[in-house]
Design brief:
Number of helices: 13
Low-confidence stretches: none
Oligomer: single chain
Mean pLDDT: 91
Distance between the termini: 12 Å
Shape: globular
CATH architecture of the largest domain: 3-Layer(aba) Sandwich
Structural class: alpha/beta
Order of helices and strands: EHEEHEHEHEHHEEHEHEHEHEEHHH
CATH class of the largest domain: Alpha Beta
Length: about 350
């Protein structure tokens, strides 16, 4: 089968690009013919205040950089390129209404089957006319694959039945790490907050929980690893005001894959104090390194964490509850049993299974 992908791929960084690459690679292993119709430019600078949109990643799969979603003249060129390649299936990566006009134009004109792979239905930030934009982009899809039950419910709540009934429940597979570094025992307990930092991810909640955690575990260390969408000043000020400098280590930058393993190897547990969520690539990354997770029980996060076996779930936006879970994690010595549980479950929900679901 000839399978085309529409959306970001290397050298664009981020979870959407990474997900598409893993899935495309799996299709290639299954002997399908792949073509990536990549973005030439993804966002104008005003919509991406966290700096460079690129990293050093690359792909051996065939890829052409054509689409600039905010430049209409690129839409017809991308459409023609897809049609000339004559795919049997087009998989479009979706996560923001920003792409609705360009995607809608292309998807309603291609002559192959269309699957929208929806990482979100309701965006984390408010967008004017979200329902109208979603309807326009999604109405040409033969199927809409979502990655959590929460996302499927959002689809049914947001769009009319003639579109939402095309929804199919998929899942976010566990990533294959570049290298699985076993946990390295540290001189102090180590928490990890990882990934692109936006307000909805609740880093402020974690920082407010840290003084409570420190009372019980004086030598606790939190590593914050990821670029900030906007300014890091708000978090730096909180760290100073809460007198956390001795307990918090900040790496406010994008971390390439080659460094990721090191941060997980020296961390006891990954913290996801999200205020809202659908699912999270950070969970898939943490599980790939057999790192337990403490996360807010919001959206689809609970679907990927086996409470008290691979991690702990806490109420969202609740620093005392988050602190209590971290303290319990250490007091009850949960790390090693959770690592063993994660290792035993890593062979489920694979990329091969997701690829088969999409083909079927």
């Amino acid at each position: 089968m000839k399978i085309a992908f529409l959306g970001p791929a290397p050298p664009f960084r981020g979870g959407i690009s990474n997900f598409a690459m893993h899935l495309a690679d799996e299709f290639s292993k299954q002997k399908h013919q792949i073509m990536l119709f990549n973005f030439r430019n993804q966002y104008p600078g005003l919509l991406f205040p966290s700096g460079n949109q690129y990293d050093s990643s690359s792909t051996d799969l065939p890829s052409v950089r054509m689409l600039t979603p905010y430049l209409p003249h690129s839409w017809s060129k991308t459409l023609k390129a897809i049609q000339d390649w004559q795919p049997d299936l087009l998989i479009a990566s979706w996560w923001l209404p920003f792409f609705a006009l360009s995607y809608g134009y292309i998807l309603k004109r291609v002559t192959c089957k269309v699957v929208i792979l929806a990482h979100n239905i309701i965006p984390h930030e408010e967008w004017l006319g979200t329902r109208t934009l979603l309807s326009y982009a999604f109405k040409s899809a033969h199927k809409i694959v979502v990655l959590s039950r929460s996302c499927l419910l959002d689809l049914k709540r947001t769009l009319p039945n003639n579109i939402s009934r095309r929804g199919v429940l998929g899942f976010h597979p566990i990533y294959k790490p570049l290298q699985l570094q076993r946990y390295e025992a540290q001189a102090f307990p180590g928490l990890l907050f990882f990934g692109l930092i936006k307000d909805y991810k609740g880093l402020d909640v974690l920082l407010k929980a840290m003084p409570i955690i420190r009372l019980a575990i004086p030598d606790i260390r939190l590593r914050i690893v990821g670029s900030v969408y906007g300014s890091s000043r708000i978090y730096e000020n909180m760290i100073q005001e809460l007198e956390l400098k001795a307990n918090v280590e900040c790496h406010f930058r994008y971390v390439p894959d080659v460094e990721v393993a090191n941060f997980f190897a020296i961390s006891d547990v990954c913290i996801l104090p999200y205020k809202t969520a659908t699912q999270s690539g950070v969970i898939a990354t943490a599980l790939s390194y057999e790192t337990p997770i403490i996360a807010s029980d919001v959206g689809g996060l609970g679907e990927y964490i086996d409470h008290e076996h691979t991690g702990l779930l806490v109420p969202p936006d609740n620093p005392p509850a988050l602190a209590a879970a971290v303290i319990r994690f250490y007091n009850e010595k949960m790390m090693e049993p959770m690592r063993e549980a994660i290792a035993s479950q890593k062979d489920s929900n694979t990329w091969a299974e997701l690829a088969r679901l999409i083909i079927e």
